[in-house]
Amino acid sequence: MKRERYSRQILFSPIGERGQDELGGKHVIIIGAGALGSSVADMLARSGVGKLTIIDRDYVEWSNLQRQQLYTEHDAENSLPKAAAAQRRLKQVNSQVEIEGMVGEVTPGMLSSMEADLLIDATDNFDVRLMVNDHARMRAIPWIFGACLGSYGITHTFLPDEGPCLRCIQDVIPMDGDSCETQGIISPAVTMVTSYQTTEALKILTGANDALRKTLVSFDLWENSRSEISIQRLRKKDCPTCGPSPSFPALKGVTGVKASILCGRDAVHIRPSSPLNLHLESFTERMKEGQILSANRFLVNVAIEGHRMVVFSDGRALIHGTSDIPQAEAIYRKYIDEQECVQDEESIDHSRIR
């Protein structure tokens, strides 16, 4: 039964029996479980990779269902975290693959706590991509960059100690700070990027590095255009990530409460200075002046003071209905007392789904 499910993949001679065996012993970390991440995770789970770890800080909303293939209306109705919903669905897809979903914001410490054969970028946050870039270079792990917007997509495979890193080429990546919330997206653009990403992943995981594409590829499906460029000459001699004296700046910790505007969503994401041990049932009781829209063991979604606040058990919150950081922070401080429940990062781990 186990070999039969992979029989057509084994018949593909570049993979074969040997490649399938190698694939079954590999661990892939996917950062982001949105459109790109859910598509890559689905294909890798079906292909028979040994272990998948999926890290995501967000939850399923109705607007996701148009292109994020792992999720259902039930997930959106209940505001399930994407990592939890993805883990549940992928275990149904292939019970032979070890699936670990991690709910939370990816951090250098989280990445450093795990050994991996490959990292796949499926985030829409460039700061996170730089963190992945620095971690991958420091630990000599290959990683695959991918992004899409509208009908446009772009991807590249970065190998340890070969060519420039993402920091070197960031000036030539034309994303301009837009997001699918502002410019929209069509699902074929997602599928095209993830087809490139997953194919490159299969090459790496089965030991076929000679078959890897060495270029940065981009396309626009609506405009019927495609291009590939070599980036080898873009490596910067003084790069703090891949230069002769690397300092890996994206891995340096950030202290204090961190707030950021979510582009196009009219919302602010707030991360406490340290993970909190927030008892969601008690928090729900305190929110009687608001309207509980949905709640589960990972988060509470409540309408309060003309805004919608989604609070996670680790103390993170999304304040919807404002792009004003001071206003969002004031709402956060009013309802979440960080001093009452802060703990050391090692003593609490809400990210792992049990």
Automatic annotation (TrEMBL):
Gene3D superfamilies cross-referenced by the UniProt entry: NAD(P)-binding Rossmann-like Domain
GO cellular component: a single term: cytosol
CDD domains in alphabetical order: ThiF_MoeB_HesA_family (cd00757)
Domain of life according to the entry: Bacteria
Cross-referenced InterPro entries: ThiF/MoeB/HesA, ThiF_NAD_FAD-bd, Ubiquitin-activating_enz
Domain THIF-type NAD/FAD binding fold as annotated: residue spans: 6-240
Any one Gene Ontology molecular-function term assigned to this protein's record: ubiquitin-like modifier activating enzyme activity
Family: Belongs to the HesA/MoeB/ThiF family.
Protein name stated in the entry: THIF-type NAD/FAD binding fold domain-containing protein
